[in-house]
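Good morning,

Attaching, inline, the backbone tokens for the sequence recovery test we're adding to the shared suite. The designed sequence is right after.
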């Protein structure tokens, strides 16, 4: 489905001289990625709205854009798998949020601190199809560390202000950390093949 739509859009741009023929594949790929991301975002927001966790849906998406964008992590092989994985991770975080609603703050922040330390140690995850230069890798590492620490500090501020959503933020940060480690393991297996 994404392929058909993105081909039509790329053809339209080429036909109307908005892009050159040699850039057609780049446009097609960009449209495919954008459509897949948009569908994931819409589904997360719909699930959040239907379950009464719309704010958590927004927080989840913001954290993916702020933290995971720089840390990297596991990459699915298809758009469908990626969308299902994203939705599943969101639902898992909602279930954990409900289960850990009354967890002592000290444990939450201990888990959040460990997640930040692991992100600092392991980020970024390099994908075999998107290699990073040493300079880019170093820059992403610094950004990953800064953003994850800022997220943890923001969660602490929310805790002080008595907003329970700090627990959800720490859960998502931890999930991103686990996703980073799983991605590193998957990539190391791909490199060995």
């Amino acid at each position: 489905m994404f392929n058909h739509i993105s081909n039509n859009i790329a053809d339209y741009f080429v036909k109307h001289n908005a892009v050159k023929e040699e850039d057609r594949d780049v446009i097609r790929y960009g449209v495919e990625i954008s459509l897949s991301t948009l569908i994931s975002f819409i589904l997360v927001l719909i699930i959040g709205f239907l379950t009464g966790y719309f704010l958590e849906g927004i927080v989840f998406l913001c954290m993916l854009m702020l933290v995971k964008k720089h840390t990297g992590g596991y990459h699915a092989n298809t758009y469908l798998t990626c969308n299902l994985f994203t939705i599943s991770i969101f639902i898992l975080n909602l279930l954990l949020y409900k289960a850990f609603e009354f967890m002592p703050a000290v444990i939450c922040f201990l888990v959040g601190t460990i997640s930040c330390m692991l992100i600092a140690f392991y980020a970024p995850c390099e994908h075999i199809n998107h290699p990073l230069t040493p300079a880019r890798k170093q820059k992403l590492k610094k950004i990953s560390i800064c953003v994850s620490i800022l997220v943890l500090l923001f969660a602490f501020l929310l805790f002080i202000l008595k907003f329970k959503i700090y627990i959800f933020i720490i859960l998502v940060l931890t999930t991103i950390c686990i996703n980073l480690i799983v991605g590193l393991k998957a990539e190391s297996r791909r490199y060995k093949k």
